[in-house]
């Protein structure tokens, strides 16, 4: 008997929406779309959804700081899975509004381009080359940008967003794949209290937060050494402000190893022994885009 899952995420037609449907392909899911990432998180915290889907890192723009801060400072939801999905952005609007007498799209008629700031940043080369005169406006999601363009016909506004959002709002894709780099991927996290077991991956990761002791010179070196001499690979280490005192930071570390080993718990115990505070954010399966495609097609 299948059980319907309840999943909170950003609006329909966003990259989050597309990525979520790949991870949960073939499953019965009740989607709970929210305009703000805070509402996505809080939906799961309040028990209104079983999971939240959080875009956390992008190839071009790096970490999504707001989302990371929410996960670290505002909520305590364990990471249950991670996967990557191509972030393909398109220029969206009404072709009929911009077509000149020769049947070509005339970008000189564009007055404004609207999108999420991360998506906008992924397409700067295109915008500077093709529409340098247009005003730019940031909104909460790419799908919201597309909706705004839909609701303002004749304004000369365009959106940057997904093909799904264009289809949902009956708008045209004026230029496909306008991102500056072809290898533009976004990494997503699935957070919630229940383990994710629908798909299997032999590759597991563990994410931790480390606060260094104030009175231990060389503590960061000691932390890294605890992993290095055990040959534990760190796929990511990032310093972020604690928001408590200027100059105080914690370190977010992604580790390519499961907690169900001898080496990793020993490394964590070693760094705790020197006075570091360690918070485990999750131990979870990690999926590549190709892996999920194969599992969905299989």
UniProtKB/TrEMBL annotation:
InterPro entries: ACT-like_dom_sf (IPR045865), ACT_dom (IPR002912), Chor_mutase/pphenate_deHydtase (IPR008242), Preph_deHydtase (IPR001086), Preph_deHydtase_CS (IPR018528). Its EC number is 4.2.1.51. Residues 208-285 form the ACT domain. One of its GO terms (molecular function) is prephenate dehydratase activity. Pfam families: ACT, PDT. GO terms for cellular component: cytoplasm. Pathway: Amino-acid biosynthesis; L-phenylalanine biosynthesis; phenylpyruvate from prephenate: step 1/1. This is Prephenate dehydratase. It comes from Paenibacillus sp. BIHB 4019.
